[in-house]
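Researcher: Predict the fold of Dihydroorotase.
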Amino acid sequence: MQTLTITTPDDWHLHFRDNEMLAETVPATARCFQRAIVMPNLVPPVVNADMAIAYKQRIEAARPQGSDFTPLMTLFLTNQTTAQDIVDAKQAGVTACKLYPAGATTNSDAAVKGIEALYPVFEAMQAEGLLLLIHGEVTEHHIDIFDREKVFIDKHLSLIVNAFPKLKVVFEHITTADAAAFVKEASDFVGATITPQHLLLNRNDLLVGGVRPHNYCLPVLKRNTHQQALRDVVATGHKRFFLGTDSAPHAKHKKENACGCAGCYSAWSAIELYAEVFEQLGAIDKLEGFASHNGADFYGLPRNTTTITLEKNQWQVPEQVTLADGTDMVPFYAGQPLQWKLKSAFNPR
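Model: Structure tokens for Dihydroorotase follow.
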């Protein structure tokens, strides 16, 4: 097979950041994705409908000329979020709300402390039809970082799913066999996104031979048995697992320092990275479902009506990209070869 044509895909989880970063991140995503679920963890976070609308307008202003790329907006849940905030968000066209346990990832210090306190908000979301997107990790210091996803499932996620059986829940960027098993065994109201880094890499790629800061993300890469469990589940074509890059740009100097900001900037070559995985698995025929059908179906949105075409044409991910202000960023998989390359996008059927 030398070319592959699939329905235009969507990215169901990414970070654009804001301001000058948008001129890089929005076109990088809009080159091949029709829609994207936009994370709200800005500074300050996007906590109400007015902020979501304003952020959407900034994203749309950064789209390439002629693009009809559609950002799907989310609210950042806090302990101050009310049921009225949910009603207002639904009326404003917000798609979902994001639950970050406080301190779980970049810019999440304002997030939720005491998840049970948000049950009235979850009830309002269930009534309004807003999806709940969850960064599923506990943040207690005594819990080992490699165990935090499993503990979150047992301590919080299973209770939320049972308490709100008609609330659509997306377990974001899952990293473990435990998470994959939980989603498979759950109802049709529970889905999951999986990133390219958690399919392509494991913790050896972060730690062996010295720390590799550009492979550092949260949730952190896990052991190879967990990586294999994720690869196995996408190879089956299971309908409730779908594409979510968690593309998270940081300036090079912020990744390569003592703080080592978490996040992999994968938007630059996202669909090609996933094609790499599915070809490795001998499941290239399952890429379209994962990238283009499953997420739209789960969100209750129409599938896209155009196509993209990839061609078998080895190329190398650039070592870095430079923003208009001169800031350098290192894209995920920098300097490494990929076998598939986007040939054309948004083609009529």
